[in-house]
Amino acid sequence: VQLVESGGGTVQPGGSLRLSCVTSGFTFDDYAIAWFRQAPGKEREGISTINNNDGKIDYADSVKGRFTISSDNAKNTVYLQMNSLKPEDTAVYYCRTLHYWGRGTQVTVSS
Length: 111
Known about the structure:
Layout: E1 2-6, E2 9-11, E3 17-24, E4 32-38, E5 45-51, E6 57-59, E7 67-72, E8 77-82, E9 91-97, E10 100-101, E11 105-109
Parallel strand pairs: 2-11
Antiparallel strand pairs: 1-3, 3-8, 4-5, 4-9, 5-6, 7-8, 9-10, 9-11
């Protein structure tokens, strides 16, 4: 199983980024995939999950209304559209399925 995140970068407050998580090595349609983030000095936080089996989507309160998770089953890829970014969104963002993690992509929100 492999998960590879991309799309991170540095943006100003109020800006947007779209993260991608390209997956391989498992039956994509059968499992949930989650986005987590970890800011310096803080614990890793789960922020959104999409269940490719039943389509159920969840968001943490900290990102609800600003972030949108989606899935492209043909590409075995999950996306995280992040709008209205705040400095407190600065973190390394990871995707996870089962007990497998990607290596993460850095998101920095700064003026």
